[in-house]
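Tokens as discussed.
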């Protein structure tokens, strides 16, 4: 299988990421509506988006095969980015406030954007990188 061009991967990452973010934000909003506190509600949304993110990125964005190592790497990345996401969301809520819907949305957007940047970088270069033979640099 040929290696996908970076621009194609970025477009696919965005589409898959937007799908996962839609699930994340919908669950987050629903949990807030039901009276859950901000951090647990954010955690529920983030976790709900995991399956879409893993399968979409593995199969479509980076076109790689699954393996236990990839699943473990993805899980480790998502535990890390879950912490980044939740802490960033909490920090932004402290800065912007929690009273206005625009402040809550702004905190969500900043947290999600930072998480997306970290995720793409780590998935592209570590989790779903192409496994190819070492090139002969002597030529």
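Sequence:
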């Amino acid at each position: 299988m040929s290696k996908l061009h970076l621009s194609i991967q970025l477009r696919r990452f965005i589409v898959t990421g937007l799908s996962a973010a839609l699930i994340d934000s919908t669950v987050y909003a629903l949990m807030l509506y039901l009276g859950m506190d901000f951090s647990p509600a954010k955690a529920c949304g983030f976790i709900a988006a995991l399956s879409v993110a893993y399968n979409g990125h593995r199969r479509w964005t980076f076109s790689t095969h699954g393996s236990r190592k990839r699943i473990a790497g993805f899980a480790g990345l998502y535990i890390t980015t879950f912490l980044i996401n939740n802490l960033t969301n909490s920090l932004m809520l402290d800065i912007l406030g929690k009273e206005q819907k625009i402040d809550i949305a702004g905190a969500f957007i900043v947290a999600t954007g930072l998480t997306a940047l970290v995720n793409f970088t780590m998935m592209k270069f570590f989790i779903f990188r192409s496994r190819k033979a070492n090139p002969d640099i002597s030529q």
